[in-house]
Amino acid sequence: MTSIDARRRITADRRDFxxxxxxxxxxxxxxxxxxxxxxxxxxxxxxxxxxxxxxxxCREEFEVIFAAGS
Length: 70
Ligand SMILES: [Zn+2]
What we know:
mainly beta; binds zinc ion; 13% helix; 2 helices; 6 strands
């Protein structure tokens, strides 16, 4: 059984995320840049390596970690 904490952190390809091909781990809603509440800019100089997203449907908040090379 997957714990809540494990579901709050997903990994995705940055391009998939930008094109709304990433799904909410709680309700399967499609999410993308429009639903980012916080970007984590503190590691890589250019693109953020992760973002906090709030699902527009179930209102759950979770972290999207962008896979390396994406
Ligand atoms: Zn959701």
